[in-house]
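Appendix B. Worked example

We walk through a single record from start to finish. Start with the input: the chain for General secretion pathway GspH domain-containing protein, Brevifollis gellanilyticus, length 204.
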Amino acid sequence: MVEIVISLTIIIVIAAAAVPMFKGWRDEQIARKPVIELVRLAKEARIRAMREKRPYQIAFHEHGFVASRYFSPYLQLAELNEFLERAETGEFRLNPNQDDDDSDLDAGAGEQKKSDLPLAPTAPKLDNNWEEHYELPTDTQYTLKFWNEVQETLMGGDIVKLWVFQPTGICVPLKLRLERQSATFDIEFNALTADITREIVDQR
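Next comes the structure step. The output line below is what the pipeline stores for this chain.
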């Protein structure tokens, strides 16, 4: 009987210690959701850029980020909102890279090459309509710092920042600081793979 009581006591103590640890892990995973979504979209944009041989982008704004074709180096919030509205209604421009004067910002990288050779490789299927966006939780604010910038930019108001993925798969190195009520994440992304190379988590 004594041995049973001792065993039960040990089990209760271990369980009591494990519950806060599990809760802390679960809270961190919930807080990490925006980071997970950004990594997923960055991977998808990079793969599409390499496969289709044309640039893709992630546009950051105050309330989240949008992954799509790269269609303007001077993207404004009003244009981004219009793009999202068209995406929701299913109305897309045939070529988001194309200006009103029929010029193409990627210099024709999206055009399919023609060849009379019977064994010529088939050009990849182009998806002009791909777009995914993620809305940040309301308790979130974040800053961005690209490698060529002196200081971090707090994303707010009408600010829009672009993270462009070239057809080679290369992107600009990015540092992101994401603050939520339960945790703060300091993330650095690799220029070659868009993988996380450094991460610091401060859980409250």
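Two observations about the output. The first strand starts at residue 56 and ends at 61. The two ends are 43 Å apart (CA to CA).
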